[in-house]
Amino acid sequence: MTNEEVKINVEKALAEIRPFLESDGGDISLVSIEDDNRIVKVQLKGACVGCSVNQMTLKSGVEMTIKKYVPQVEQVVNIEA
Q1: How far apart, in whole angstroms, are the C-alpha atoms of residue 71 and residue 43?
Q2: H or E element, residue 30
Q3: What structural domains and CATH numbers belong to the chain?
Q4: Each residue of 37-52: b (16+ CB within 10 Å) or e?
Q5: Tens digits of per-residue pLDDT, 10-30?
């Protein structure tokens, strides 16, 4: 998978999870893809920023969805604003 294909697939994954985040007043955006496409950095926005379960959302929802589209991703990291 090329770097561009990885980026497109990560964006597809974020588009899949975004409606769930928006329903709670939050959002997510891609910051970068690093370390030979193994680490994806995202930024949680809106209500997700102060949410007490945002790490669970990041691991159980966002990371699992991204790995479904891009299996070589090993970690998804939230970058604070």
Answers
A1: 20
A2: strand 26-34
A3: 3-78 (3.30.300.130)
A4: beebebbbeeebeebe
A5: 999 999 999 989 998 989 999
